[in-house]
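CORE FACILITY INTAKE
Project code: CF-77B
Contact: R.S. (postdoc)
Sample description: multi-component assembly, two entities in total
Requested service: structural model of the whole complex
Turnaround: standard
Below are the sequence entries exactly as provided by the requester. Do not edit them.
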Amino acid sequence: MALTCRIAVLALSCLFAPPMLVQAQDVTAADAALNAANAKAGPRVTPAKTIPVPTNLGPAAAALIAAPYGQPAWNAVPATPDAWRARVKMLADAALPDLAKAREMLGVTIEPTVIGGVKGFILTPKTIPEAHRNQLIINVHGGGYVDGPGESGTLEAMLMAAYGGYKVIEFDYRMPPDAPYPAAMDDAMAVWKAALAMNDPSRMAIVGSSTGGGMTLAMILRAKAEGLRLPAAIAAGTPWADLTETGDSYKTNEWVDNVLVRYRGYLAEAALLYANGHDLKDPQLSPIYGDFHGFPPTILTTGTRDLFLSNTVRTHRKLRQAGVPAVLQVFEGMSHAQYLFDPAAPETKEAITEIAAFLDQYLAK
Amino acid sequence: MALTCRIAVLALSCLFAPPMLVQAQDVTAADAALNAANAKAGPRVTPAKTIPVPTNLGPAAAALIAAPYGQPAWNAVPATPDAWRARVKMLADAALPDLAKAREMLGVTIEPTVIGGVKGFILTPKTIPEAHRNQLIINVHGGGYVDGPGESGTLEAMLMAAYGGYKVIEFDYRMPPDAPYPAAMDDAMAVWKAALAMNDPSRMAIVGSSTGGGMTLAMILRAKAEGLRLPAAIAAGTPWADLTETGDSYKTNEWVDNVLVRYRGYLAEAALLYANGHDLKDPQLSPIYGDFHGFPPTILTTGTRDLFLSNTVRTHRKLRQAGVPAVLQVFEGMSHAQYLFDPAAPETKEAITEIAAFLDQYLAK
């Protein structure tokens, strides 16, 4: 019999392998142990890895993917409300010079506004294409329900103005530790009601990523519940659709995503801080548990290394199951929301241009 | 200074962390080592993991995801042409009873045919909806360019007939070790030319997964080059778009995907056996290197654990960059082509129904 099993621990796969097969590749003891560990139904056992930076991408994407884990570290969690406030302020202050530089590069202007009693910003591109003159984008910033206050939350709004050619209003919803749930959603709905008084919803979209993506979905759920008119379309980038650690990529992309790294730590603590005792599976906090029937057409964006890959594809599938026109784009090698991180990267322009092209199909002129 | 770093190896992240932060989570020595290893730009260093079976899916999907590594093992590679033939025959023979049972369950009939001089099968559902009566699906089976001969290659064709409601022709292209590249592509083109003589291409689609997805893309490239008319739309499921180990998920999903497991072993050997000395980056072998301008509308399907996740999303992005209407669906937790594996799974019906709904947008009646 030609059966060739180089090491004893491979016995199980030898049992299944037909006798005419031989091992064309050397099998190391480590490989054999992994084969044995995965020879029965159950959890998947995977080894420690060193995952190279992809060689098939441009320098900007490669730099984002190669970047060290984001700081503050995933496990650096403030212990007191004051420590949270200090963290938020530090990150917000650090973002402002880069945002100013990017606006300059992209020809986007920013001015403060108040909408529905909520402070915000109007982002305007150098020129607005004729087809977009009467349209308005409402942007919901991300940041784990704690980060991104004030002007520091205007990254995506700026990109939508620059690469989408839209007038964009970004708003500064209240956040914990000062104002936990439902303050952020109350502000978001006040903004949407004010937007409905400013423009026809057929000419408006709501756009947000990460926490902003989750809030965008929660806004539609609440607008449906309150009988409000809905936007013509929405864009939910890598939405935090599930605040519990449910979804396969919370595990498969754990330690792989260099932005969020893990659920445990900052993310889990931010979820609890925001929820303030509310059930994390309440659809207003985790919109994946809501009813997506009647949602506006939706475009979703994520990356293959995104800790929220599953949040995104679960949202996509659930929208499609509800008959909603919904499309998905997944960027090679990208971690959480990295399609927004480098305003000059071709992938950023591509992601936003795709979102705008999708919105153009559904927004009235 | 309130700086709290519990273990010395965390020094680097302490440098970046503002002093008001403390570690809210215990940091183990292993966590700290990973933080340190990922504190500089470069490859990502990830730990050994035990990845649970997702709890948010139905029993059929959970069973597919929980399943042990596929057999024969990824590293069981035949050493001789006769050993390849024996392996192929063993797997093909094993598939036939399950396919017969599934046809019975789904009400699909099968009959042999010859198209363009190539043997094949016609798969017909119990009833064909009025809108599909004049349409024809050409299916290209998968199997790493070596597996899936004869009736054993009719899984996807059967599902397209059952859940799509189409008449489907699947064909038995020649494969190595007897007939390496370009025999398979020559047969595929002979079939497409014969199909063009049978029906108008506006009423036809080409559909294939894995190797069949890669061949579907290569058929469009070659049809363009030969000036042939193109199908109205195509469906390329988790296409083997790149026969080299290029694409991030070859690494991120290595050992995670329980179907293919790794590039090294069977896959790499099958690629070389098929290529028979040709450059693996020739667009006829790795269509990702071809020009996608002018492609028909395309739907792509994959799963979050798929070793070919990157093959699929790279194809999607490249199609979109070429202005092709192209949509992507990604199934939660699924490994390579598992959306086809269980004919009774709701996810299988969902994947195929989505593909059919996409084709319906573009095929003439």
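Facility notes:
- Residues 72-362 of chain A form a domain with the Rossmann fold fold (CATH 3.40.50.1820).
- Chain A touches chain B through 87 residues (CB under 8 Å).
Invoice: internal transfer
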